[in-house]
Write a structure and sequence with these properties.
Blueprint lengths: L1 E5 L8 H11 L3 E5 L12 H10 L4 E10 L6 H18 L3 E5 L13 H15 L7 E5 L7 H11 L4 E6 L1 H6 L3 H8 L3 E6 L20 H11 L4 E4 L12 H16 L4
Parallel strand pairs: 1-2, 1-8, 2-3, 3-4, 4-5, 5-6, 6-7, 7-8
Length: 267
């Protein structure tokens, strides 16, 4: 399987240094976090985008990791415009997709099964889908208000567009209580990308090295094997949100060794 990592684990690092780290560690794909505190984002001028693409070198920009929330806000036009701005950035960088969230609900909790939120998200994703540049896709992640595979699949079934697909982040459906085989089955028709990670406990989401925490990685890999998945496995090391976590490069080295010795031989 192809290995990638998110720049969430090295936020603010110049892209040439990120690409060099990718080359050193063998994690050749990149999820490029798109935010104003990163080297590249939707406000970056054309010259910066050209320079960023050059800085990436041999690394593969898998997707732009945006923070567009497709089930939040009151104005469809604003959300669609934000989606297309991120898609334009992805096209300029040579990335194949834009990661998005649902982002519905309130501080009181998720709205994983809310049909109104599903319809709102689907309407906006479908409106953007036919105007996407090049071959760029939109990928809705199992996250926040739509943490489960069931919730994401419900949205994508409503969208019904081949360029709007799913990201399976292992932590969120598991935390919601959805069994791994169920998530796999529900996301199977839509699955574009997989994020892997591990964490200290169910209550403590501090990132730890792969295989040393509580997330059911082996079960996930068994499920992916059953689906015949051959896409990217992307390590989302959330050091941006957990600054006490160890530096990303050491985690990448250890993670590659773990995958080679524990999981990949069983594929």
């Amino acid at each position: 399987m192809k290995l990638a990592f998110s720049t969430l684990g090295c936020s603010g690092m110049p892209l040439a240094e990120v690409a060099a780290m990718a080359a050193r560690t063998g994690w050749s794909g990149l999820e490029l976090r798109s935010a104003p505190d990163e080297p590249i984002h939707t406000g970056s001028p054309w010259a910066d985008r050209v320079a960023a693409r050059a800085d990436l070198g041999a690394a593969t920009p898998v997707c732009v990791a945006s923070y567009v929330r497709v089930a939040a806000g009151s104005d469809d036009g604003d959300v669609v415009a934000a989606l297309l701005a991120e898609a334009g950035l992805a096209a300029d960088l040579g990335a194949g997709a834009v990661r998005v969230f649902a982002g519905a609900g309130s501080p009181d909790g998720p709205v994983d099964g809310d049909p109104d939120a599903a319809r709102l998200a689907a309407r906006r994703l479908r409106a953007a889908a036919d105007s996407l540049p090049g071959d760029v896709e939109l990928w809705l992640e199992t996250h926040d208000s739509h943490a489960s595979g069931a919730a994401v699949a419900r949205v994508l079934d409503l969208v019904g567009h081949p360029r709007v697909r799913a990201v399976w982040d292992i932590a969120h459906p598991w935390g919601w209580g959805e069994p791994i085989p169920v998530t796999a089955r529900l996301l199977a028709p839509h699955l574009a990308h997989v994020q892997i990670k591990d964490q200290r406990s169910a209550a403590d989401r501090t990132p730890v090295r792969l295989g040393t925490g509580v997330l059911p990685l082996t079960a996930m890999f068994d499920a992916l094997g059953g689906l015949g998945y051959h896409g990217w496995l992307s390590l989302e090391w959330e050091r941006k949100w957990h600054p006490s976590a160890e530096p990303l490069e050491a985690v990448l080295v250890a993670g590659r060794e773990y995958l080679q010795s524990r999981l990949l031989p069983h594929r």
